[in-house]
Amino acid sequence: MDPEAGLELTHSFVIVAEELSFRRSAERLNLDQSALTRRIQKLEHILGFALFERTTREVSLTPAGRSFYEENAQLLQNYSRSVKAAKLVAEGKTGVLRLAYMAFAATELMPHAVSRFRRLYPHVDVNLRYIRTQGQKLALAHDEVDIGYMIGPFDHSDFHSLLLTADPLYVVTPRNHRFTRLHEVRPADLAEEELILGDMIEWEAYRWRLNDMFSGEGVPLNIKLEASNTLALLGLVAAGLGVTVYPESLIGFLGRNVEVRPIIHPDFRIQTVLVWKRANRAKAVRHFVEVAKNLPARG
Fold first, then answer.
1. Rounded to the nearest 10 degrees, how much is the dihedral formed by the CA atoms of 265, 151, 209, 216?
2. What band does 299 get if pLDDT is binned at 50, 70 and 90?
3. pLDDT of residue 63 exceeding 90
4. Are strands 195-198 and 223-227 parallel, antiparallel or unpaired?
5. Residue by residue, what is the 3-state secondary structure of the chain?
6. Measured over all CA atoms, what is the biggest interatomic distance in the chain, rounded to whole angstroms?
7. pTM of whole model > 0.90?
8. d(CA 50, CA 84)
């Protein structure tokens, strides 16, 4: 028997078993009563035993019909729940969204988007993973995450990429550094400065972008120290061991032991892009992209 036809016959049987009336059952099913009778007869023929005892006054279940009802009523309830649950997933209203982010998105872009997304879609679980930009590309390619905030630009035929911000760069200095007497700093001003930068293991994409920008201006990077995390970088700068370069998104989180000045150059900006696989058509991903794209501009 075709599974879909079998499900239709069984559903009709369960309704009749609940109503114990072919007239009321036909009304619930929006079906002609004679058509419903034929369905039940067909099911009894397939099963090889009677499901109902019929008299002119009443309809009752046979012992075999009672047993068949008890098994199938629960089965149909489970089926109905599974259909509803799957429909919510298909509509992007429930399920799991796996989201990756790098440091520059961690302070504002990602948290604000996740907060708004959870208000709009409270039944979608958001799993967050901190992954540096290069690692995100691999994780997306291997379907380990659904969407990621990374350093741009990123142009690949297998992925969508949405530019979210292009942050101006700032030089971060110890207090009372010579740059603090300037209102602005130009790339050439950093030629003689000892730089403290994130190491290539954790900061690879950012380092390549800095290299491209400074090389374009003919300014060599005089790197004296490297560190893996932002706290170490700031501690080394605050101790007077050099200066570092940060995007605007992190400036509000630096603390009181360092000072900042903007680097004035139209190309000295770091892009943050949202990336997801073209083959990933999950509605939860599309919903999150819309939320991230339409966040209010930072003040």
1. -40
2. very low
3. no
4. parallel
5. CCHHHHHHHHHHHHHHHHHCCHHHHHHHHCCCHHHHHHHHHHHHHHHCCCCEEECCCCEEECHHHHHHHHHHHHHHHHHHHHHHHHHHHHCCCCEEEEEEECHHHCCCHHHHHHHHHHHHCCCEEEEEEECCHHHHHHHHHCCCCCEEEEECCCCCCCEEEEEEEEEEEEEEEECCCHHHHCCCECHHHHCCCCEEEECCCCCHHHHHHHHHHHHHCCCCCCEEEEECCHHHHHHHHHCCCCEEEEEHHHHHHCCCCEEEEEECCCCCEEEEEEEEECCCCCHHHHHHHHHHHCCCCCC
6. 104
7. no
8. 32
277: its two tokens: 């696989």
Q: Cis ω on the peptide bond leading into residue 153 (within 30° of 0)?
A: yes
In whole angstroms, what is the distance from residue 84 CA to residue 278 CA? 27
* Dist. CA 134–CA 275, nearest whole Å: 12
Tokens of 231: 């706290």
Q: What is the percent of the chain with per-residue pLDDT over 70, rounded to a whole number?
A: 91
- Phi, psi (degrees; rounded to nearest 5) at 145: -135, 160
Amino acid at 135: G
Write the burial class of residue 289 (CB in 10 Å: 0-12 exposed, 13-18 middle, 19+ buried): middle
Give the residue carrying structure tokens 């972008």: 209
CA dihedral 212, 214, 215, 221 (to 10 degrees): -110
Q: Are 264 and 169 in contact, with CB atoms under 8 Å apart?
A: no
Cα dihedral 36, 40, 43, 45, rounded to 10, equals -120
- Which tokens hold the place of 76? 């149909």
